[in-house]
Specification:
Elements (H helix, E strand, L loop, with lengths): L1 E6 L5 H10 L12 E3 L5 E6 L4 H7 L4 E5 H6 L6 E4 L5 E8 L14 E4 L2 H10 L5 E4 L15 E6 L3 H5 L2 E10 L1 E5 L5 H22 E9 L3 H7 L7 E4 L5 E9 L3 H10 L3 E7 L6
Parallel strand pairs: 1-3, 1-4, 7-8, 7-9
Antiparallel strand pairs: 2-3, 4-11, 5-11, 6-9, 6-10, 12-14, 12-15, 13-14
The structure holds phosphoribosyl ATP (PRT) and zinc ion (ZN).
Length: about 280
């Protein structure tokens, strides 16, 4: 049995649980439980505060964990990371009051900066040769300038609306973060094997999320152009239609390229384009 720690309740919880479920692992979860056992995979899930996850994985209380890179690096344990998971993307940024002049990070020399990330920020400032006074606070960092506690802040930003609502302007990106899978460095051979099985499933789920299955009809004359637009995994599947001079083409397309590619497919004469979600994608 391998133990995986995930955030009990917060921004990472829902996406962590759905990733495990999409890996085909079933379990009953309830908000008041501290742990739960999967019914079809030798996995136990522990529900913890995100800040505790790196330490518990390092100590072996949990074998694996899902946590933001921001928390992992702040805890000084970046070496535990095994796999980026593609959700909870955010950045750790420096921000100053909107009216304040700011040209470069050198302007922060000798200033008071409030943050919950003194390690990451300290490393960043040292790398830029800036010395500032860091005030470590655990929450509501964005109000520090307005109550006179700090000249600037360094906090997590995603949409930017919290900064905006507090009269602050984002001036530097200090660190980019997303949720990652972490693992204890000395897993037994059995647990290492279970970790590899989990990683294989997570990669298949992520690949499927990034791609769509596409089916379309095209005139034979456009086939080369269609093939060039839809290279697929190896090459597209091409089958003749009952109507002479037409073929059906099946392939996969990356979600990021999707609209651009469909516009071009229409331009070369493709019709009846169907796009379907992919459940798993094994390379
Ligand atoms: O209770 P526990 O300690 O487990 O949770 P927590 O309150 O410490 O963490 P939580 O649930 O808020 O965040 C968990 C992780 O989600 C963080 O460590 C980040 O990796 C990631 N994440 C992604 C974020 C955000 N987006 C985010 N927007 N974490 C925090 N925020 C906050 C930020 O602190 C600021 O207050 O949201 C506000 C900014 O958001 P915007 O959209 O207004 O810019
Ligand atoms: Zn936390």
């Amino acid at each position: 049995m391998i133990r995986l720690a995930i955030q009990k309740s917060g921004r990472l919880s829902e996406d962590s649980l759905s990733l495990i479920r999409e890996c085909g692992i079933s379990f009953v979860s309830s908000s008041y439980k501290l742990k739960t056992e999967a019914t079809n995979f030798p996995l136990e899930i522990l529900y913890l505060r995100d800040d505790d996850i790196p330490g518990y994985v390092q100590d072996g209380v949990a074998d694996l964990g899902v946590v933001g890179q921001n928390v992992l690096v702040e805890a000084g344990l970046p070496e535990l990371e095994v796999e980026p998971l593609g959700f909870s993307k955010c950045r750790l940024s420096l921000a100053v009051p909107r009216g304040e002049a700011y040209a470069s990070v050198a302007d922060l020399q000798g200033k008071n900066i409030a943050t919950s990330y003194p390690q990451i920020l300290g490393t960043y400032l040292a790398g830029h040769g800036v010395q500032a006074n860091l005030h470590t606070i655990s929450g509501s960092v964005e109000i520090a300038p307005s109550i006179g506690l700090a000249d600037a802040i360094c906090d997590i930003v995603s949409s930017g609306s919290t900064l905006l609502g507090n009269g602050l302007r984002e001036v530097e990106t200090v660190f980019r973060s997303e949720a990652v899978l972490i693992a204890n460095r000395s897993l037994s051979a059995e647990k290492q094997n279970l970790l590899e099985q989990l990683q294989f499933r997570m990669q298949a789920v992520r690949r499927a999320r990034r791609n769509k299955y596409i089916v379309l009809n095209a005139p034979v004359a456009s086939l080369d152009a269609v093939k060039a637009l839809l290279p697929g995994i190896k090459s597209p599947t091409v089958t003749p239609l009952a109507e002479q001079g037409w073929v059906s083409v099946q392939s996969v397309v990356n979600e990021d390229d999707f609209w651009h590619v469909t516009d071009q497919l229409k331009a070369v004469g493709a019709e009846g384009i169907l796009v379907l979600p992919i459940e798993k994608m094994i390379s």
